[in-house]
Amino acid sequence: MHPLPHPPPKTPTMNVSLTHALREIVDQRLRSGLYGNASEYVRELIRRDDEATGQLRALYQAGVDSGAAAPMAAADWDALRAVARSRPTRSA
């Protein structure tokens, strides 16, 4: 006699409370058709957050590994201001 097969493990669930505004954002994403349900959308957000966190940690570590900081000279600040001024402004 063969033993009964084990049912597949259940995916853990989590309940999350959202404000009305956040719930509307979720509903908009679902209506767009990009996601089949709220769980798919939340899983995608968590994956993106995890990836962004890893990238930020790598950038932080690169800064630490680059050595001691050096003070910025007036010319450095002028160059930085010129770059900032050359970028288009954001619309509100």
TrEMBL record:
Signal peptide: none annotated. It holds the Pfam family ParD_antitoxin. Keywords: Toxin-antitoxin system. Belongs to the ParD antitoxin family. PANTHER family: ANTITOXIN PARD. This is Type II toxin-antitoxin system ParD family antitoxin. The lineage of its organism: Bacteria, Pseudomonadati, Pseudomonadota, Betaproteobacteria, Burkholderiales.
